[in-house]
Amino acid sequence: MSYLLFQVTFGGYLLATIVYVVYFATQNPSVRLAARSLLLGAGLLHTATLVVRYFEAGHTPLTSNHEAVSFFAWSVTWGFLSFRWRYRVKNFGVFVTPLISLLMLIAALSSRNVTELPPALKSDWLPVHASIAIIANGFLALAFCGGVMYLLLEREIKGKRFGIFYSRLPSLESLDALNHHCLAVGFPLLTLGIITGSIWAKQAWGTYWSWDPKETWSLITWFLYAALLHQRLTMGWRRRRAAIMTIVGFAAALFTLWGVSYLLTGVHTYVG
User: Fold this and answer.
1) Does 267 score more than 60 pLDDT?
2) DSSP secondary-structure letter at 36?
3) What's the number of domains the chain is made of?
4) How many Å apart are CA 202 and CA 267, to the nearest integer?
5) pLDDT of residue 196
6) What pLDDT, on a 0 to 100 scale, did the predictor assign at position 144?
7) Which residues contact 69 (CB under 8 A, 6 or more apart)?
8) Based on the domain organization, do 187 and 77 belong to the same domain?
9) Measured between alpha carbons, how far is 154 from 115 in angstroms, rounded to an integer?
10) How far is Cα 96 from Cα 202, in angstroms, rounded to an integer?
11) Distance in angstroms (rounded) separating the CA atoms of residues 146 and 41
12) Residue 49 and residue 154 in one domain
């Protein structure tokens, strides 16, 4: 049942992506409303998918690559929708929905098998730590999208080639503010994810920190974003530097999520 819902949800995200691209080309307000409604509907279906998967698996569905990436896509969706209620960022959805669809494709290609949890994962800290960490990545993904938008617009402005992005994207100041707002939510959640993970590690393995590869890369990612925020506050880093650092930080976050699991072996390597 959960996989049927997942497929319908995936289709909803793909359709929302297509309609957002059509809106980007036409700038028709009715098309934008349709795209937003489709994304909201897909987000609600996705929520139902996760709930059904929870009952099918008998535990929080965050332990396999399929489950984690699906939850990642869910986090990006609702992070974006929550920002849409407060901020108006022109054509932001055109850049966010392809990322959501790509994440759903990765989840669709991953094994959907439900496996028995290792003893260390049978803990109440599983839903707390894992959900916070992935939701943090969701907001960092939004900052990444904002950074890409900033660089595309800046390139046209600096080259004095006022093309499709110049006429359709918000101002550089608005995109820089978007970058800051996303980091202001994502970085505290990233910090909380590391803290809860340390508490769980103490409970499971008797030590708060063991320099496991995933722990190490989580710390590297944290330092990258901490450095960015520090430079924004003390050195006035804005605009291009901040956009580039946001992209670099998100690359580190993705490596922490996927690269460590596939390339490095440690206590966080559980399920394929």
Assistant:
1) no
2) H
3) 2
4) 13
5) 92
6) 95
7) 103, 104, 106, 107, 110
8) no
9) 48
10) 37
11) 23
12) no
HSE-up of 203 (CA within 13 Å, CB side)?
15
* Cα–Cα distance for residue pair 242/184, rounded to 1 Å: 13
Task: Give the Cα separation of 241 and 262 in Å (integer).
Answer: 31
State the amino acid at position 51 in one-letter form. Answer: V
User: First and final CA of the chain: distance in angstroms?
Assistant: 22
Domain match, 145 and 217 both: yes
Domain that holds residue 19: 1-115
Tokens 């490596």 label which residue? 255
Over residues 28-75, the pLDDT tens digits come to 999 999 999 999 999 999 999 999 999 988 888 888 889 999 999 999
Do 160 and 200 fall within a single domain? Answer: yes
Q: How far apart are CA 205 and CA 211, in angstroms?
A: 12
Q: Which of 81, 115, 149 is the last residue of a domain?
A: 115
Per-residue pLDDT, 23: 95
Output Rg (C-alpha) for the chain, integer angstroms: 19
Same domain, 272 and 160: yes
For residue 11, the tally of other CB atoms under 10 A from its CB is 13
138 and 46 in a common domain: no
Closest residue by Cα to residue 1 from 48, 40, 43, 41: 48
Query: Token digits for 232?
Result: 């924004």
Residue 173 tokens, joined: 């100041």
pLDDT band (50, 70, 90) for residue 15 = very high
Residue that finishes a domain, picked among 55, 88, 115 = 115
Tell me the mean pLDDT in the region 172-195: 91
Q: Can you tell me the distance from the alpha carbon of 238 to that of 177, in angstroms, rounded to the nearest whole number?
A: 9
Contact between residue 97 and residue 16 where contact means Cβ atoms under 8 Å apart: yes
Give the predicted TM-score (pTM) of the model. Answer: 0.90
Q: Are residues 77 and 176 in the same domain?
A: no
Q: Are residues 73 and 110 in the same domain?
A: yes
Tokens representing residue 220 in the block: 């590297």
Mean pLDDT, rounded, for 160-168 = 83
